[in-house]
Amino acid sequence: MTRRKIVAGNWKMNMDAQTAVSLAQSIDERSADFGAEVVLFPPFVLIDKVKETLGVGPVKTGAQNCSEHESGAYTGEVSAGMLASLGVEYVLIGHSERREYFKETDEQLQAKLSLALKHGLKPVFCCGEPLAVRQQNSQQEYVQRQLEDSLFFVSNEQMLHCIIAYEPIWAIGTGLNATPEQVQEMHAHIRLLISNRYPGSLAQQVPLLYGGSCKPDNAKSLFDCPDVDGGLIGGASLKASDFLQIIDVV
Ligand code: PGA
């Protein structure tokens, strides 16, 4: 079965109004050659400018987070409905930086997922173990718990709109990527977990992305793994030439 390939750029809290437009322009100029779905995840305030730059081209936009509330007195928050009204199509849910620095809980992730799906956004659910867990060789149990506690409550129909990004925390921003063997082993495990909970045909359709120090020089070996359907790219998505090279090998 051929699954759709996705390369996503998580800009985190980087760029400004000018640099965001110029980066989006450089990506958009090459978009006719892309063999994968390319999604840019700028900070909230830059989404509209990036969308305007991308116009009606094939490159999509996503948000790095959304509120667990529908609307109301939550100063500083941004709702899934607001994102959808801007034409945003994707949203990251449960990135490890949000879990760690903003103490996002399983209950909050569930609420965010529900609202994202309700408003027609495609959630990119992030999971992955810290170094200590990898050193104990308990990474499969750890990721299983993350999926069961926060994602596997969604219906079959909703699961079809979800994407999962496996991002081992020890590989994020460290320059130390997981090996293709480690990544394939975990992705196959995640697909098995999906098939234990959902129909097997559905498990075959959910795109599984790898994230964590994915760069032009290691992207091909990671993307060649049979259960890897693309990447969630942080640092290397901030430089057009690096990001374009990664897109080229997916
Ligand atoms: P990195 O980040 O590519 O800079 O390691 C990936 C991510 O956090 O999504």
Order of helices and strands: EHEHEHEHHEHHHEHHEHEH
Task: State the strand order across the main sheet.
Answer: 1-2-3-4-5-6-7-8
Count of alpha/pi helices: 12
Bound molecules: 2-phosphoglycolic acid
Walk me through the structure.
The chain is of the alpha/beta class and 250 residues long. Helices cover 42% and strands 14% of the residues. It is built from twelve helices and eight strands. The protein has an eight-stranded parallel barrel, surrounded by five helices. Strand 3, helix 3 (80-85) and strand 4 form a beta-alpha-beta unit. Helix 1 (17-29) runs parallel beside helix 2 (47-54) and helix 7 packs parallel to helix 9. The chain is globular, with a radius of gyration of 17 Å. The two termini are 16 Å apart. The mean pLDDT is 97. Bound molecules: 2-phosphoglycolic acid. The site of 2-phosphoglycolic acid (PGA) has 13 residues, from strand 8.
Describe how the helices and strands are arranged.
Blueprint: E1 6-10, H1 17-29, E2 37-41, H2 47-54, E3 60-63, H3 80-85, E4 90-93, H4 96-101, H5 106-118, E5 122-127, H6 131-135, H7 139-150, H8 156-159, E6 163-166, H9 180-197, H10 200-205, E7 208-211, H11 219-223, E8 230-233, H12 240-249
Parallel strand pairs: 1-2, 1-8, 2-3, 3-4, 4-5, 5-6, 6-7, 7-8
Features:
globular, eight-stranded parallel barrel, 8 strands, binds 2-phosphoglycolic acid, alpha/beta
In brief:
By secondary structure, the protein is α/β, with parallel strands linked by helices. The protein is built from 12 helices and 8 strands.
